[in-house]
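Incident log entry.

Two folding requests arrived from the same account within the same minute. Monitoring flagged them as a possible duplicate submission, but the sequences differ. Recording both here for audit purposes.

Request one:
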Amino acid sequence: MTVSSNRVFAWSFLLAFGISSTCNAVPEPNGRRVPLVLQRNVESKVSKIVGGYPASEGEVPWQVALYGQFFCGGTLLSSDVVLTAAHCVMSGGQLDTDFKVGYGGLSLLNFPFETAVKQVITHEAYNENTFQNDIALVIFENPVQNFTNLVYPANLPVSHNEDYEGEEVTASGWERLSFEGPQPEQLQAVQLKVSPQESCKNAYMAIVDIGNTMICAGVEEFSKDSCQGDSGGPLVKVIGNYSELIGITSFGVEGCAVQGYPSVYTRVTEYLEWIVDTACAAGSCLEYEYVTDDPCEDGDCTTNGATLNVNHSQLIILQSCIYLFFILVQ
C-alpha cells in the first residue's frame, strides 16, 4: 500500500514553503504555528515513533491501519468499531470515507485482514485549528469474525477520574523512525511517561491551548516520541497483563522528540460517554461499563452502559467510592 502521491507532494510542499520560510515568525492564532509548527499529519498523516522498537506478535492486537488517500493508525474497540483521530478522516471540513482498514499483522505491506468502511463519525465539536475534540469512530463494513491473540479489542478506561500523570505508557504505529525519515514496514512501539498537565500546557502556551481533553506524553531525555505515521493510533497504559486505552495520537511540534514539547494525545477518559453513545447510535453498541463523574451522588453508586469488556483473564480493581471487582471469564 502507498500513500497518495498527491498528498505526499502536498505535505512536502507544506513543509518546504509553509514552515521553512517562517522560522522566526510569531505563532498565529489560527492554528498555523511557527517556528515550532504543530504537526497533525493532515496530508500523509504519518507520525513517527522515535526511539522505539519493533512490536512483537500479539503485543498490540488492537492496532489497526487506516489507508487510502492518507495513512493513519487506529484502535479496535469491538468487532466493528475503531477509534481514531478526527484529523485523520477530515481535512478542510471534508469527511473522507474512501479508505480501508487493515489489521491482524505487523507488516504494513501485507495485512491478514482488510475491510471497507461502513461509516465514519467525527466529534461534532472537532476543531481543525485548535485540535480540540480530535476523535472519531470508524465502523467496519465487514466485522472481525474471530478474536485471537493477534486481533483483540482494547479496553476503555472504567473511570473519568484518572489523570495518569507520571505513569508509563506505550504508543504504537507505523511511524517514521526520524523526522522526514523512512516509514518502517513493521509496527513500532515506544514507551513514554505521561507529562504533568501544567508543564505541557505551559510548553504549548504560545502555540495552542492544552485543555483537559488532552493528555501529553514523552520522556525527559526527549529521545523517544510519537510523531509522523502514528496519528490516530493508541496510547496505552499497561497494568500487569491488563492494558487500558488512555489516548489517541493527535499532534506534536515539527521535528518530533523536541526538547520541552511532549506529544499530545486526545484524552480518552473525557470521551467515554461520547464513544459509547455514538457507537450505539450507529448500530454498533459496545460491551462496556463506565462510572459516572459522581457515582455516589445521593449515596447511590451507579454505572452506565452494559457489561465491561476486559481483554484476557484478569481482575480489575476500581476505586471510585467503593471497590468494584470485575472478573472476565472467557
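Request two (distinct sequence, not a duplicate):
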Amino acid sequence: MSDENFPTVKDIRQRIDDMDTARKNGILYRNALRFIYLTASVVSEITGKRAPIGRDAYRTNIFGESAVLFKIKTAKRKGQTRSVAIPWDYDAWAEPLYNWFSIHEDSPPFSALTMRSFQREAGIVFKGFMWPIDEYQKAVKFNINDIVIIDERINGNGSTSYLIEFPSRERRWTDDPSAQTTTIVQERHWRPFTLQSLRQLRLWELLNVYNFSDDQIRSYTGLLGGLHDIRIPSTTSDDHSPSTQNNEKEIDILTASASYYFKNLLTRRSDQR
C-alpha cells in the first residue's frame, strides 16, 4: 500500500471541507462528519433516540478562553451524558458546528441522517483512503464437515470422547464434534477508511499529538474502560503515522497553542457546566 492511501489528519479534514454542499443534504453530511470527528462519537450517538438537539451546544468561557461545549449521550453507557469542549479560536470547525446546532434549537440537527446513507456518503468522501486493522483474535465456529476425527475413546462413565483436528491443525478432545468453536488470529491488514476509522483517527490524534492520558480518553469518550474499550491501530516501523505525515511546523503550532487547553477543556464532565 502506498503512502498516499494512508490519510493524515490534514488529508481527512481537507476531504470533509471540500465536500460538495450543493448536493442534497451536503451541508448535513459535512457537519455530521465534522461532529463525529471532533467529538470522537459513533453514529448511534448523533441519530435516533440518543441524538443531541440544537440546544446541546453552547458557548462558554473556560480558563479565560472561549469554547463551545457539546452534550453527548454515550451509546455504550445507556445514554449517560458527557460533555466535549472544542476551543473556539483553535479549531476552524468549532464555529460552523455551533451555528449548525443553533439553528435547530429543540430539534436534532442530524435527524435526516440514516445509517445506510451516512455510511455511503462517507465511502464517497474517503474513497481511496485505507486504515490499518491490528492483529486480533476471533472465535470461529466449525461444523462436523470442517473438522477431522483423529481418534476416539470410551470414558469411565461410558460416554465417548473424540480427538478432532481443525483446519489450522489444532487438536482437542471433545464429547460433541458436531459444533465446535476455536480461536484464530486475524493478521494485521488494511480496510477502506470508514466512519469508525474517523473516530479512531481522532483518538489517535488526541493520544499522540495532544498527549491525552487513559483517564482523559475515558472522560472524552464516556467509556469506563478507556483505551481498553477502543481499538486504535498501532504504528510500526513500516508505517507512517497519521499525524507525522503532516507538516512539522503545523504540528508544533497546534501542540503549543492547544495541547494544554485541550487537556483541560475536553476532559470536563457534563456535571461541571
